[in-house]
Design brief:
The longest helix has 20 residues. Helix content is about 75%, strand content about 0%. The protein is elongated. It is built from twelve helices and no strands. By secondary structure, it is mainly alpha-helical. It has a domain of about 80 residues.
């Protein structure tokens, strides 16, 4: 079940934060990364891997030549993340942050990597570091969602509610997030707010089985 949940989370996060495409290898690495993401979104995973590998090659080559910038380390961690090489994300992310401590794109990516490695304490630390520094950042909604996930898995449902609520305020169009919000509200008996969250999830995705089931359960509680 947890594997399926992680697959949902992994494939739902598709946006890429702003990036300065400035010449040479960095632009090539980013182009390869984007091509890989496009292929992956069309379920052409093996082809995508070729482009992710090339993005990684370009970035590590720049690092070996002492030509790396903050963008080099950012694209490298993104590509490794798509390949689910989470330990490598941490290794290269640490190196990047030692050079560019304020590169919060890497901070957020490392938070995700730690989550998938089941190191929730480290994931929470990095996600909170990101949202504290970038409360309106392009990945703030995603960071809050992961914070909610961590608190939900730890059965800290009230804290999860706060995090999910912030996530859907920043990004209100994702049925999964509304479903998660409904589930933690239901878990603590906040049935009216849970009903609202489940309704939003179903409105966004009428075929969402779990959200429909949650909606029916809560309706029985509130009627």
């Amino acid at each position: 079940m947890r594997c399926a949940v992680r697959t949902l989370i992994f494939f739902f996060i598709i946006s890429v934060p702003g990036f300065s495409q400035t010449g040479g290898g960095r632009a090539d690495a980013l182009q390869n990364y984007h091509t890989g993401r496009d292929l992956e979104s069309r379920n052409r995973v093996q082809e995508a891997e070729v482009y992710y590998d090339e993005a990684v090659r370009i970035c590590t080559d720049e690092i070996s030549r002492n030509a790396a910038t903050r963008d080099t380390y950012t694209v490298l961690t993104w590509a490794l993340q798509r390949q689910r090489k989470y330990a490598d994300v941490i290794t290269w992310g640490d190196r990047g942050l030692r050079l560019f401590a304020d590169e919060f794109r890497i901070v957020e990516t490392m938070g995700e990597a730690y989550f998938y490695l089941d190191d929730y304490a480290s994931s929470l630390r990095y996600m909170q570091r990101y949202v504290n520094a970038m409360p309106q950042g392009e990945r703030a909604s995603v960071a809050y969602f992961f914070i909610g996930e961590i608190f939900r898995l730890q059965r800290q449902f009230r804290r999860a509610d706060i995090a999910y609520t912030t996530a859907v305020r920043l990004e209100p169009v994702l049925a999964l997030w509304w479903y998660r919000l409904g589930s933690v509200r239901e878990a603590v008996g906040d049935y009216a707010p849970a009903l609202e969250a489940y309704e939003r999830a179903v409105r966004l995705n009428p075929g969402y089985r779990e959200a429909n089931e949650g909606l029916n359960r809560v309706r029985q509680r509130t009627e």
